Amino acid sequence: MSGLAAILASSVAVPALAADYIEPPVIEAPPVVEEVYAAPDVGGWYIRGDIDYHWTNFRNGDYILYGAPGQRGKFDDGDLKGAMSLGAGIGYQVNDYFRVDLTGDYFFDADFEGSTSGFCGGVPCTSTDRSSMSAFLLLANAYVDLGTYHGFTPYVGAGIGGAHIKWDKLVNDDDNGRTEHDGGSEWRFAYAAMAGVSYCLTNRTKLDFGYRYSRIEGGDMFGYANNAGPGFDDGFDVHEVRGGLRYQFTGSNGCEPAPQPIAYEPPPVYKQ
What is the per-residue pLDDT across 53-79, written as a single tens digit (0 to 9) for each? Predict the structure, then answer.
């Protein structure tokens, strides 16, 4: 009888204990934490292509005359017309604010018109001179990008290198008739300064629009003919309005959209 009573008592106690169990209270989770993916590092190789229209300032020139020892002549005036050029280059975006590239630009023929004064059969006369000049400009450049604002990145830069200048024949017309001088051709020292702005077209491609000033040193202009020459120009100041595209192969060029935050909500913590 006592064993039966014990069993009955235990069966009554278990439900009582179960009824007394209370679920642990939930402690309120901390505020939602936002995790932001880091933006990709800016930097990588790019190629570029450019087209421009330029104006070239002829800084005058002189030439040797053989009528008297040591006598030299000088152009009364000279003018180089505007012309087009095409360029290409390869560069590296180092970081958000600095990049470098190597560029080559071919300047198509710019017509030259000038005049000189002298003597024709002992009588003073003025001649008309015509030629054309083309060039290949090779520069190593460095740029400072001044920050990106709504896809626009203003910049300034400078370059140093050389220019291969090629003059066509110089045709000289005066009262004695026509004389043709062979044109000069040689490499010369050159440097440049530029400013502009680029615009993000895609996350790899930028449109580039700007201005470049180039200074090309003087050198051979034409050879000897009919008791005059050789002649030498004093160099050029070139003013270019340029437009082009830059395509970056690797890394980031700063055109990607801003990284979006990802909300992270920790699980609830139960009080022990």
Answer: 999 999 999 999 886 556 888 999 999
